[in-house]
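Why does residue order matter? Because the sequence determines the fold. Keep that principle in mind as you read this record.
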Amino acid sequence: MSDQEPESPQMSPYMAEVEEGKRYFWCSCGKSKNQPFCDGSHKGTDFKPVPFVAETTGTVTLCGCKKTDDGPWCDGSHLLY
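Structure:
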């Protein structure tokens, strides 16, 4: 992980609609204007987007505070801040 701290765009999870089998890239730096997904704003930092493939079509809970230990998934870390 980076020595830099990610920005926390919101202190609650994002409820995102995904499609089964489609690949997504979760923003780990918090700078993306397309939250919770990466738009390349991490360039010039040590952060990297976190790829994942949707297992089913529907709503998933993605971390918004960027403090999760289980990225891209919300693990409740926002409750500690």
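Residues 1-81 form one domain.
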